Amino acid sequence: MADVLKKLKGRGPREVLTRAGQLLRAKAERVGLPGAVPTAPPGLWGSEASRNIFAPWAAEPESFVATLKDRWPNHAGDVVERAERILAGRFDLMGYKDLDLGRPLPDWHLDPVSGKRSSRRHWSQIDEVSAAETGDKKVIWELNRHQYLVTLGQAYLLTRDERYAEVFAAHLADWFEQNPPKIGVNWLSSLELAFRSMSWIRSWFLFDGSPQFTAELRRQMLRFLYLNARHIETYLSTYFSPNTHLTGEALGLCYLGTFLDGGAEAARWRETGHRILAHWLTTHVREDGSYCEQASHYARYTADIYSELLLLREREGLETEPAHKERLSALFDYLLHLSGPDGRTPLFGDDDGGRLYPFDTRPVDDMRGTLALGAALLGRGDLKYAAGEPGPELLWTTGPDGFRAYEAAAAEEPNDLSKSFADGGLFSVRSSWAGDADHILISCGPHGFLNGGHAHADVLGFTLYVHGRPIFIDSGTYVYTADPEARDRYRSTAAHNCLTVDGLSSSRPDGPFSWKTKANARLIEWKADGGAARFCGSHDGFERLGVRYNRAIRFGGDHLLEIVDSIESEAEHSFEVNFVLAPDITAALADGVVDLGAERDAEIELRLEAAATGTGVFDAGRWEIENISVSPAYGSEAASHRAAYKLRGRGSIEVVARVTHKPRSISG
Fold it and tell me: Cα separation of 5 and 22, whole Å?
């Protein structure tokens, strides 16, 4: 109780009442008070009217399947291949590939990476953050989101092979038995209940008509959907994680309230979900379109969530507030300018490997499916230009009407080569919108949202593409709670293209989702002219060490990239200017400079050089190339390198680093 009171200290009255009510309700469930766990009303059923809302393929399934097979000849085979692997008990979850989760039935409480199995206790008795007992809950939850059931449903719709329906039915029946109401890790997070509910509702219509999807199995699903709705409504993340946790839960309530034929309760869930989403949109998405958590992956999540809300309301014939479309369109501007020339988006800030739409199987940093969705919903030709040829996920998501809207839109090259998102402190410049362009993203903004749970210590960092290839990258995320040391290492300043002082970070972590100190950024200059730009900014993250610091960046023009780090310090310190290389970029020291190259791309012949000046520089500085790991997706690592320019000194120091094209030798 002392811990609870400590958490509530200093909170507002509404938050205290909400949290106290949630604690009391959880206690009542745990001790088994009568009525604490709700009972689904008799006669509960799925609304037939929701078929056209959640199943855009259902109106003309034969035509839908024919379009898929005609437009994307390999798609059916890809879906069947993934479904067959599921039948064999093999799963790809986030960045983990080919996990063996058991056959014929998965172990719903097992983290297959650590081998730890969570206990069958009341959900409130399981630590949300600690991995000591459960292993990585993210891995357990990703399986239990049941998005793979949608893959089985796609395979069933495409083939009418009852084997997929048999596994769907067997997995559901076993899940209901092994996860009784309120017991175990799969009841711990309301967001996970929301995602699982959305998967079940999508699956309902994909397997509709199969004899395996019996009336009894449907009744069981409806009972659990009702319990999910009541649980989400009671344990909303309003004061725990008012980010994509809360908006994902709200979207889940919209799904549940629309699908369940539940009278006043269903109407309340639908309206609650919509009210939450409408309220938080202008907080999560700033006026300039930037996303509040300083994490590109969660910006994409937010775009998907609000796009899905727009789809649902349009299919129901309900009004969408103009502000919703305006702010969503601004968010799509943000995603558009974050995207790299190769169609991938740098994953700065946290990346949890999940996604809203199970239809989209592209790599997690490929957000072109979301850009295509925005083009279809908002009629924007610039988004279509960036999205390119649509994938089958667009038809699965929007249905024939949305797909026809995308096809009808004229692709238009975006007008701006440079874009300032000053509210979010993100600055984007590219040489062109071609696939072989140079592109830089610069970070000089706030340290995330609230406690900065998904932010990294990357202020004044940048990512760089040259000739359409990523050269300097963000190191990624790797894991959240499973490995505390790795968690801090991947979000440290040294894991980004930033300056460190004495090897320390500009912001200091305090647990997996909070910070002891946060660096405050200040924009000094931003001038852009087409594909060239000058930037200057500062932050106070090293003032605790007596170090004042600012960074100027010049992109385009005489030099491909020039970085000037200006340092003021009365005491002696070690300084490192770090450059994190993409895994396929080679680095070699030669005559005091770093030569960069890439296999299978002769255009990537670059030179990275640096020089330090100032009366207090104790040595001329030196380059070191270090072996590191980067994380392309949650749970996965890849070998790479970091080039670090190192020096010691005090007083006024200026370090100038340049990236130029390596002079080509002239042969006779």
Answer: 14
pLDDT in tens, 504-520: 999 999 999 999 999 99
Q: What CA–CA distance (Å, rounded) separates 305 from 13? A: 30
- Where does 18-177 show beta strands of DSSP type E? 90-93, 96-100, 110-111, 116-117
CA atoms 456, 457, 460, 465: torsion sign:
negative
Q: How would you classify residue 379: left for phi > 0, otherwise alpha for psi between -120 and 50, otherwise beta?
A: left
- The partner residues of 38 in beta bridges, in order of sequence, read none
Give the predicted TM-score (pTM) of the model: 0.96
Q: What is the widest separation between alpha-carbon atoms in the chain?
A: 92
- As a whole number of angstroms, the distance between CA 483 and CA 504 comes to 20
Phi, psi values for residue 350, rounded to 5°: -75, 150
For the chain, list residues with pLDDT below 50. Answer: 1-2, 666-668
Residue 496 identity (one-letter amino acid): H
489/478 Cα distance (integer angstroms) = 10
Q: Which of 187, 164, 176 is nearest to 221 (CA)?
A: 176
Which residue shows structure tokens 């009365």?
A: 570
Best CA proximity match to 642, nearest among 503, 518, 534: 503
Q: What is the 3-state secondary structure (H, E, C) of 557-587?
A: CCCCEEEEEEEEEEEEEEEEEEEEECCCEEE
Show the tokens assigned to 583: 């895994």
CA 292/CA 490 separation, integer angstroms:
20
CA atoms of 499 and 587, how far apart (whole Å): 19
For residues 648 and 7, give the distance between their C-alpha atoms in angstroms, rounded to a whole number.
43
